[in-house]
Amino acid sequence: MELKPTSPRDARTRSLNKKRTHVTEKTIYNYDTALTRLIEFLENEGTADMRDVSSDTIARFEEWRLESVKPITARNDMRTIRNFIQFCESIQAVPIGLHELIQITKVKQEDEICDDVLLREEAVQILDQLEKYQYASLRHVTIRLLWKCGMRISGLRTLDVDDFDEGRPAIEIRHRPETGTPLKRKHNSERDVLIRPDTADVVADFIQNRRPDVTDDHDREPLIATDYGQEVPE
């Protein structure tokens, strides 16, 4: 197969245009940020055509990134780059199979922790205290849902009161970009999370006894709310 001359910037633009059909703008932003770093590296090396990009080029890019970022950031970048190279294969800009030669940055287990995911040790200790002293409080229901639903804070922000189905019981996670709470993979990220009756009791008691009767700027009723509207930590 004869490769076609393609500049890194043109390849990036075409890749982003394809991504926009099925991911959110936030994902596009993150993807573009990593690709911009790659293009900066390629231009510094004098590489003006994707046909000149090899697995060694990408390995040198990884080394360059690790000089200024943590391994977990470099790993995320390398995953994006590998996906980008696979796209470049599809438009005949680089050899078929090049993406398979790209090795993703290895990260130590202690560096795997993501700040917006609640850890088991923290959750058990916190929930024990909340169960005793702050039952069905805003903090109690927030921590309980984060832990029991395996949910990230960004997912918690999407929830309205009506997303709690007490009958099953379940939490319904929905993509609502028009009212400020998009999901990363749009409708593909929508799901119903079944919860245990004891967790449902906490949510129901919070809604009935502790949650203020407020709406947000879109006339929605956020599940996690205070007298001032939605209150989910950044």
UniProtKB/TrEMBL annotation:
<dbReference type="InterPro" id="IPR004107">
    <property type="entry name" value="Integrase_SAM-like_N"/>
</dbReference>
<dbReference type="InterPro" id="IPR050090">
    <property type="entry name" value="Tyrosine_recombinase_XerCD"/>
</dbReference>
<dbReference type="InterPro" id="IPR002104">
    <property type="entry name" value="Integrase_catalytic"/>
</dbReference>
<feature type="region of interest" description="Disordered">
    <location>
        <begin position="209"/>
        <end position="234"/>
    </location>
</feature>
<dbReference type="InterPro" id="IPR010998">
    <property type="entry name" value="Integrase_recombinase_N"/>
</dbReference>
<dbReference type="InterPro" id="IPR044068">
    <property type="entry name" value="CB"/>
</dbReference>
<dbReference type="GO" id="GO:0003677">
    <property type="term" value="F:DNA binding"/>
</dbReference>
<dbReference type="GO" id="GO:0015074">
    <property type="term" value="P:DNA integration"/>
</dbReference>
<feature type="domain" description="Tyr recombinase">
    <location>
        <begin position="113"/>
        <end position="234"/>
    </location>
</feature>
<dbReference type="GO" id="GO:0006310">
    <property type="term" value="P:DNA recombination"/>
</dbReference>
<dbReference type="Pfam" id="PF02899">
    <property type="entry name" value="Phage_int_SAM_1"/>
</dbReference>
<dbReference type="InterPro" id="IPR013762">
    <property type="entry name" value="Integrase-like_cat_sf"/>
</dbReference>
<keyword id="KW-0229">DNA integration</keyword>
<dbReference type="InterPro" id="IPR011010">
    <property type="entry name" value="DNA_brk_join_enz"/>
</dbReference>
<keyword id="KW-0238">DNA-binding</keyword>
<feature type="domain" description="Core-binding (CB)">
    <location>
        <begin position="6"/>
        <end position="89"/>
    </location>
</feature>
<feature type="compositionally biased region" description="Basic and acidic residues">
    <location>
        <begin position="209"/>
        <end position="222"/>
    </location>
</feature>
<keyword id="KW-0233">DNA recombination</keyword>
<protein>
    <submittedName>
        <fullName>Phage integrase, N-terminal SAM-like domain</fullName>
    </submittedName>
</protein>
